[in-house]
Give the backbone structure.
Amino acid sequence: MTGSASPRETTPLEERLIALIKSRGPISIADYMADALFHPHDGYYTSQTPIGAKGDFTTSPEISQIFGELIGLWLVQSWEDIGAPKAFNLVELGPGRGALMQDILRAARLRPAFLDAARIWLVETSGRLRHEQQRRLRDAGIAPEWADRFADVPAAPTLLVANEFFDCLPIRQFMRVETGWRERLVGVDEKGLAFTLAETPPLPTIDIPEMHAAAIGDIFEVNEPGEALIDEIARALIERSGRALIIDYGHMQSGYGDTLQSIRRHAHWPVLNAPGSADITAHVNFERLFTRAFAAGAAAFGPVSQGEFLERLGLVIRLERLSAGKSAAEAADLFAGAHRISSSSQMGELFKALCISSPSLPEPAGFRP
């Protein structure tokens, strides 16, 4: 999806990209996304306030505290499953405004030893968001540390959470044409940035499975940074013991389709319009992540729908307990938030949960039928 018609805007980043393309030729969608989202000065995550009612999108932890509380209890159980080490890394990739970690730590107070053992690492490149995370977690009693990459987190037993992180990693797209596959690129036309196609086939290293007869115009997406990160996480969990919980929106099986989209002020926005001013994401291919983790030697569970995962963790019971003694209006807000994150008509079906684990650990909670 490229979004509905919107007024054409320009940004300093767009002007630089146009100049670059005119001098050197079209760039990959992955390179475009990387600049649009993470440019040090003009990228979306470095220059905008993305999350919340005043931002461009809202995540599950911002909608309902139950989401983070259930994940917090899941992490406590996982800590026990890995032998309750006296020191371990509690890592969150892309922690947003810190709401998820705040709720995780509140729920984990039930097991003080868990909090005593946890060394919190937030993998975040945005200075703006780091400031917000620091403000939110100041009262948690544990001072977090920050890293630019998962690779920068010191070696130790690890429990990792990534909620709506993989969807914003840069993807490449390949389109089926009469003569085979061609990479979809970002070029320039008389109006500004525009999609175009490479003139030559992709390299053999690009894995485009022939799942069925591809029609002319079909698109296949590859998330190379995401798959490389899964390799990295899997190796760390094999070497150090631990689990990773990945929750995002996407599909369980590989397929053809254009899922590249841009969101601005909670509405669709043209992907190539005013880069740096809007969020850009793509659906996560959970089948490829699962396969990649398994191939690296880790265990993998799921994916299961977010709604099913939360219900298995006790969403209904937690909602009843939270609502007890509340006013009718407060209870209604709690039920509305829980419905939004779990209902199949809202976020419950599109969003999925995947667990990557050290191979010797038992099947994790929430993934058992």
DSSP finds 13 helices and 16 strands in the chain.
